[in-house]
Amino acid sequence: MKMFYPFFLLFILFSGCGLKNINTPVATAQQQEKSAIADEQSGDDTELDDFDEFRDELEAEPLYDPLSGYNRIMTEFNDMFYIYLLTPVAKGYKTVLHVEIRKSVANFFHNLYYPIRLVNNLLQGEFKDASEETGRFLINTTIGVAGLFDPAQSEFGLKAHEEDFGQTLGFYGVGSGVHIVLPILGPSNLRDAISLIPDAYLSPIDYTSRDHFTLTDTKKEYAAVKSYEYINEFSLDIQMYEKIKKDAVDLYPYLRDIYEQRREKQIKE
Questions:
Q1: Of 33, 66, 189, 218, which shows the fewest CB atoms inside 10 Å?
Q2: pLDDT tier, 71 (very low <50, low <70, confident <90, very high otherwise)
């Protein structure tokens, strides 16, 4: 996967210029919803006059989205994957394992990714958060039985400080770049997609040659472990995706806007 992303990014950057609707201004999901409401009110002259006063605010602003054609196709693909494959598998998995076991599995994986959070907290100068992450890792790895439990938060009040390399780049002023929808992984952007590579080198779940210990050694082991992690995480809130998409007038821009706003908030925090 790590070697795949650079070629994948180059492909979509060079092929994106030929995609449909490349220069079409894209309205945000909220703007589209407001426009739909305005259309319904068009039969009432009084309400239409009131709407005219705010027409300038409701008009969509041009948005640079050169990969919109590709992104829409990939959003449809991911939507079908989530509905027809991931959801049924996660539901079956959920019936087999109790929620507390699945939470422990999620805790285990979260504890494994301590190096990613540590390094990115340090890179952002968040030394207090980095020290708390180290305390969490030591407590959860020992008292928490290899990270299966989270006594660091429940007993010692140490909360996790989620940071990744995309947030680190954003912290230093690197823009998000064009929006990109990744296969299965979903909404992203150029900055965050590229940032998956350095974060992957900090992860103990890997298939490349390294001098230190890794949980997986081959591509098959890597794919199996990451798939299991993904299914387990999804099983903890199977309805989350449906909750997110139920209010979407147009799924792609809706998910895009949610992702970009969330990332911007995470960087500011």
A1: 218
A2: very high
The whole-angstrom separation of Cα 230 and Cα 71 is 22
pTM of the model: 0.75
By the 10 Å C-beta count (0-12 exposed, 13-18 middle, 19+ buried), 212 is classed as: exposed
| Residue type for position 117 | R
- How many residues make up the chain in this entry? 269
Distance CA 225, CA 206 (A): 10
Structure-block tokens of residue 196: 């998956």
CB 191 within 8 A of CB 177: yes
Closest CA to 28 of 182, 268, 249: 249
- Decide: 217 and 111 in contact? Cβ < 8 Å: no
| 3-state SS, residue 199 | helix
Structure tokens at 148: 């299966």
- Determine contact, residues 127/213, Cβ cutoff 8 Å: no
Where do the domains of the chain lie?
82-247
Range 136-160 average pLDDT? 97
Q: Give how far Cα 231 sits from Cα of 45, 82, 92, 101, Å.
A: 52, 11, 10, 13
Instruction: Kindly report, residue by residue over 157-174, the tens digit of the pLDDT.
Output: 999 999 999 999 999 999
- Stretch (H or E) spanning 54: none
